[in-house]
Amino acid sequence: MRGGLQKRARRPLEGVRRLGVSSAVLLLIPCGLAAQTSVSVHVSGVEDEVQENVLATLSLARAVGDTALDDDRIRRLHARASVEIAGALEPFGFYHSQVTANIAETGGAWRVSYAITPGPRVRVTSVQVRIEGEGAADAPFQAVRDSFPVAAGDPLDHRRYEIGRRRLLDVASSRGYLDARLVTSELRVDRQADTAAVVLQFTTGPRFRFGPVVFQQDVLNDNVLRRIVSFEEGQFYSTRPLLTLQSQLAATGYFAAVEVAPRRDLAEGLFVPIHVTPLSRRSRRYAVGGGFGTNTGVRGSLEAEFRRLNRSGHHADGKITASPLEQSIRTNYFIPGIFSNTRLLGLSASFAKLETETSHSRRLRLATSFSDRRGSWQEVLAVNFLREAFEVGVDTASTRLLTVSGAWSQTIANHPIFPRRGQRFRVRLEGSHERLLSDVRFVRANIDAKLITPIGDGARILTRAELGVVYSSDFRRLPPTVRFFAGGDESVRGFRYQALGPLDDAGGVIGGNSIALASIEIERTVFGRWAVAAFVDVGNALDDFSGRLESGAGIGLRWRSPVGPVRLDGAFPLSLQHSPLVLHFGIGPDL
Prior knowledge:
By secondary structure, this protein is mainly beta. The chain folds into four domains: 17-117, Roll (Ubiquitin-like (UB roll)), CATH 3.10.20; 123-203, Ubiquitin-like (UB roll) (Roll), CATH 3.10.20; 209-280, membrane protein fhac (Ubiquitin-like (UB roll)); 284-587, membrane protein fhac: a member of the omp85/tpsb transporter family (Porin). Helices cover 13% and strands 48% of the residues. It has helices spanning 48-57, 59-63, 71-89, 139-146, 158-174, 222-226, 239-251, and strands at 17-18, 23-28, 38-44, 98-106, 109-117, 123-132, 181-190, 195-203, 209-215, 255-262, 271-280, 284-293, 297-306, 315-322, 326-336, 344-355, 359-374, 377-392, 395-413, 422-432, 442-455, 459-472, 514-527, 530-542, 550-561, 564-573, 582-587. A 16-stranded antiparallel beta sheet has the order 12-13-14-15-16-17-18-19-20-21-22-23-24-25-26-27, with no helix packed on it. Strands 1-2-3-5-4 form a five-stranded mixed beta sheet, covered by helices on one side. It is globular, with a radius of gyration of 32 Å.
């Protein structure tokens, strides 16, 4: 009996092009001047994954592309083919295959073909899976036994047998049966009768418990990291809390990498110590940045990050930004473990001068925030003091606000920068009251979502939507940072940044107390890192959701740069006649 399928780590199927449902071809024309030999390998009689495994197993097929491939080597590799093909078919239950081989050479070009008759397929007649030991009655083991992927009457498929074996071992590892083992693991094949029997005897051994957690680092006080540990010594061992611990330690920003290892070799009785070995990052980081966006124009920035100010884990950062639309300075100070093991207290101060086509403002903000993770959600609760002098259309004021806010966000993606599939959902609530050091009473709610869905090979659909509303005792005294505007790269393309919204009596855009936006975009990779896109955006900033929705449509070019997608879009405002093309340029992650 042969084992499982041939390993495909060598990626032998790259370069294979199928010619219909019953054949495959590999073709090589060497580029070297001295190499004159070319070879094509054809396989027929089997299809799909069986055909793929044959090609992955054939030495001659794997040698295609080797510049040292000469006539003698082709003949030697061809002589092995019948045995290799027979071995490639057995994992699928074909033990009586026949191969008709043909090899011909014309002018230095070799054509090799293998016509396969797989023969009858072995059938499974019996499956015995016996689980013994302390965990025999454990429901997850029983579930694996009851749903074992091989059943009597099935055609033999070695892969399913291996999957069943692996599931038993995976359950044992994840639930703390660290001494579990397969006492008997047999796939008994009767070649004469074309039948097979599965016999598995699995013993779980005892169930282990968590021992002490040992942090092997000297950067922070252990109690700072110990607050993140979600399990207690003496609880039954499980891999899930270990994976959570690893991801949460990595998310703190203190470390470049984190290894969490159960030390079975150091166990005392059934208590397994957990050794945590973090690799620390540099304590300070400075960065000078620059860029261009149609929302901001040319911009530059200077950043400083102090990742560890003391052994208690305090850290801070600051940033200076300059562009035609914004000149700002911001600083933050963070203290971990306040009122909760995973909660982060943030103290921040910022000053910004903002000048867009629709508003001018000078804003001072002081804030205290508490951030925490709740499962896959990031929560930020904050108290902000805002002093903003502004001019929006004919509205001119200097407003003081003490706001309380809450924000919840979730981002799930298969890649942090270039996701093929992912989603983002954000909710933010904010409000103030005249009795709490504020000039204006308001409540603001905002929800936005974005979804990325793959379609076919190399294409994606990107959809996004946003809804928001403000209720206020005196809307015209609200600063522009609280009002809603539309238009720009992340809004309705085809319109300039914040160019959409209700107008005052003089025709100036003053923003709305509500917003509604929607967008759909289809993107397809054309070659390498380059992709093209087509999109339609609809939306506007409105008064009480009354008014006309504007729309824009266009096409775009995408380039996957090392720091994120670079987007260049050209869009026309569909709801306006005889309007010029508006270019939009941006860079950054899709989610």
